[in-house]
Amino acid sequence: MPSAPAPSGSPRPDSGSPDSWWPRAWWARAWWARAWWERAAIYQLYVRSFADGDGDGIGDLAGVRAHLPYLAALGIDAIWFNPWYPSPMADAGYDIADYRSIDPVFGTLADADALIAEAHAHGIRIIIDVVPNHGSDRHPWFAAALAAGPGSAERSRFWFRPGRGADGSQPPNNWQSIFGGPAWTRVTEADGSPGEWYLHLFTPEQPDFNWGSPDVRHEFEDVLRFWFGRGVDGIRIDSAALLCKDAALPDVASTEPPGPAHPYSDRDEVHEVYQSWRAIADEYSTGKHGTGGLGDRMLIGEVWLPDAARLARYVGPGELHTVFNFPYLDCPWDAAGLRRVIDETLALNAPLGVPATWVLSNHDVDRVVSRYGRADTAFSLERRPYFHSLPVDLALGTRRARAAALLTMALPGSVYIYQGEELGLWEVQDIPDELRQDPIWTRTGGADPGRDGSRVPLPWSGTEPPFGFSPASASAEPWLPQPKDWRDLTVAAEAATPDSMLRLYREALRVRRAEPAFAGTPLTWCEAPEGVLAFDRLAEGGEGPGADGPEESGHDADGIDVNEAAATVRCVANLSAVSVPLPPHAGILLASGPLDDGLLPPDTTAWLYATR
Ligand code: GLC
Asked: Which candidate among 25, 47, 165, 557 keeps its CA 20 to 30 Å from the CA of 327?
């Protein structure tokens, strides 16, 4: 939520800044005063695949700590960590056995504490993943539930039910696991007899918690306090719309949309949970529990809902601070489609006073270079096998991904960057079957290739796998094989190549952070040829091209020339098949590819200073 500009005479944000050209006008101070997450660039860090410090072929916290300077230089504001807790890894850590510790393969709690402190010293916030819908079948509560037997208080923390049919051999209802197969598994009771069934919307190793149980509510509130108390700045809430179930557990019709009548998706009771979580986040933001951390705590929900009005119920002053923008991610590389999603996103967020989020990729979807290099550039989780059947033009996909990066970073709100996106990595579609790890692959009998292709370990340096991902002394190969062709996409190679994706991301993030126009909230569409998206970003308080800025004199109370800093930035993205003339401009800030004698080539985005 935009807050009021800092009063005149308050300390100037440029004092001590390493960037000598740091914007100096009063609206830059307004930006400074805002909550950090409102326009942050947030790096999604998939620990297993980021950097392996101890040489076991699996990324870990030591690897992250060693590369914090890389992330600081990239120019991000926060890191979102995928789950780092003790886990049997049936679903890559989304099956949590202990919510208050770190898996030994990643390190220790002391490592996490050190990492949080070191990241904070770089000015980087930490967001962690909390998975409230389900735990692990190795969680002590589940072991206790199995031991305690039917009707026990221990079982009431999960969804245990007798089966249907005379001998109880049929699942209690028709719900299907999101990863394929039935959503119920039958247990063997302590006396060896076939027993009750338990619910798991994902794998059988991920039993769903019963959010009707006060134990569950208290436990998660305590987990939040545990991590906020350690200085964590934000929580990403996994599968956030699925927590509450209709206790009658009725069959579900495949046509039932998420909402109050659906037995497990987007039920109204879920909002009580997030209202209580928001109260906890607010307590830590106000410093009631000391000054641990860098200030405001935020909550972001993973909410996949087709209905914008239902989605809007999750965000706002008493609930989550933001939700992920999945329609933007799923949208094809198409000007009209993207404009529609951008407009709908802003229309949803603006009245609620919450910032939009912009997401091009994450650990669950195909990498953006591959998506945009196919003849069909849309994406949906349900149709992954179809998308994988299409040929990929990597050069085309890379050009579009570069253009998409500048388009995305020019939009008002926060932006999420999934590790490797800044290197232009592609989806690895040819992982040998026997090396695939994603339960989606096994549970669909190989019909769905799953998500391993977006989770391949990062290439850091050198010309051969493991590309510096593991130390030279490593005892194991990376947990998923890296393509040999990634030799040109290592951090070292790209850092040395002026037109690399990495250099583009660094420069774009630097400009996005420094340019006053990107600190403002408004976006104004401009006329543009068909297939071209053009919009202005205007520093808050400015009045657009030709205006003199907020002060009639053109100077603020400190005597600073506001006109200089109030320049409107125009973003022009050409998604058409032909080059188009650039609109009149006073200068070019950045372009995603070479310009063609004043023309903007296809699949290219430019950031311009609009003419006054
Ligand atoms: C979320 C995660 C995904 C995980 C699933 C089950 O969608 O992003 O990776 O498999 O929840 O926890």
From this structure: 47
> 293 falls in which pLDDT band (50, 70, 90)?
low
Phi, psi of 236 (to 5 degrees): -95, 125
Q: Rounded to an integer, what distance in angstroms lies between the CA atom of residue 612 and that of residue 609?
A: 9
Helix axes 270-285, 214-229, angle to 10 degrees: 30
Q: Which residues are catalytic?
A: 238, 283
What is the average pLDDT score of the chain? 90
What is the pLDDT, as a whole number, of residue 598?
87
Rounded Cα distance between 444 and 203, Å, is 11
Backbone angles phi, psi at 534, to 5 degrees: -135, 130
Q: How many CB atoms lie within 10 A of CB 344?
A: 14
Our mutation pick for probing the ligand 1 site, out of 81, 238, 326, counting the most ligand atoms within 8 A of Cβ, is: 238
Q: What pLDDT is attached to residue 291?
A: 59
What's residue 545's pLDDT? Answer: 47
**CA 239 to CA 433: how far, in whole Å?**
28
What's the average model confidence in pLDDT over 316-341? Answer: 96
Please give the structure tokens belonging to residue 594: 């070479």
Sign of CA dihedral 294, 295, 301, 306: negative
Ligand 1 centre distance from Cα of residue 92 (Å)? 9
Q: Which residue shows structure tokens 């879920």?
A: 270
Could you tell me the distance, in angstroms and rounded to a whole number, from the CA of residue 363 to the centre of ligand 1?
Answer: 9
Ligand 1 atom with the smallest distance to the CA of 94 is 12
Alpha-carbon separation of residue 490 from 312, 544, 586 (angstroms)? 40, 41, 36
- Residues with CB under 6 Å of ligand 1 are 91, 94, 131, 202, 238-239, 302, 363-364
Q: Where are the beta strands (DSSP E) in 288-331?
A: 298-301, 322-323
The predicted pLDDT at position 542 comes to 60
Q: What percent of the chain has pLDDT over 90?
A: 84
Q: How far is the CA of 82 from the centre of ligand 1 (A)?
A: 10
Whether 587 and 578 have beta carbons less than 8 Å apart is answered as no
pLDDT of residue 33: 52
Nearest CA to ligand 1 atom 3: 364
Reference 156, options 167, 139, 144, 168; nearest CA is 144
User: Which stretches of 123-190 are assigned E, i.e. beta strand?
Assistant: 125-130, 160-161, 184-188
| pLDDT for 541 | 64
Amino acid at 536: D
* Distance from C-alpha of 186 to C-alpha of 505, rounded to nearest angstrom: 49
On the question of pLDDT at 287 being above 80, the answer is no
- d(CA 306, CA 284) in angstroms, rounded, equals 32
Percent of the chain surpassing pLDDT 70: 90
When pLDDT is averaged across residues 418-430 and rounded to a whole number, the result is 98
- pLDDT tier at 90, thresholds 50, 70, 90: very high
